[in-house]
Amino acid sequence: KYAEEDSVGVHMHLCEEAIEIQHSLTRWGRRPIEFLYEMGYLSRRVLAAHCAFLSRDDLDIISRTDLKVVHCPTINLMYMNFPRVPELLAKGVKVALGSDGGSYRGLDLFTEMNVMMAGMSGYYGSPFMDHNVISPRDALIMATRNGALALMLEKGGSIREGFLADLTIIDTRKPHLTPLHDPFTLPFFASGEDVSELIVDGKVVMKDRQVTTLDENAIISEATELVPIVRERIQKILKRS
Question: How would you classify the pairing of strands 167-170 and 195-200?
Fold first, then answer.
């Protein structure tokens, strides 16, 4: 209700672990997505991370409500489940690409694209000799246009007249990117280390791999100093629990 009134989005983790499904079935007699749907909670404004355990009815509800799903490949495939991404895309769901948190492999969306394509190909494609379950084009759309739509940025995530000037510029003059016959192969070979410039809403925030809006070295130094303090606090909390 408040999201609709204030024109903002709602973010949540949903169907992330099997225990979540089991708890919902035990307490409410229905799966989490079914329960939220009956409450009128699901809409185009809701951004749901993971969605790793979905039933066929869940797929239909997600498509019907225009719920935005964020697939976090590395974390999902390692600790959760293989989400039904190909089926969601086939139903027209705008599945976006995320990295969850930076605690495991960082926030590199190029890595996430690569992991997703390999994982989906192995799980959904290999048994049927179909290795194009998620194409590089699909991966790029999930990381760009669908990501913008998930954040309710209708004019973002695409290079078009009248859209936000958000651009990622990649230095392709590198051995692992040469020759580059098709830009859509970049999810296979590129990484965040290949990004040379970054423009956000027309403002250059990184040039020649140097962040222009903050002192990166100072932040790294401060973070290094804070690590032992944070670790000590965590240890105290764990001892109390």
Answer: antiparallel
Please report the domains of the chain, with CATH numbers, ordered by start residue: 2-240 (3.20.20.140)
Q: What is the overall mean pLDDT for the chain?
A: 92
Contact 169, 196 (CB under 8 A): yes
Distances (CA, A) of 35 to 18, 46, 58, 213, 235: 16, 15, 10, 44, 37
CA–CA distance, 171 with 194 (Å, rounded to integer): 6
So what's the pLDDT on residue 103? Answer: 64
CA distance 47 to 149: 10
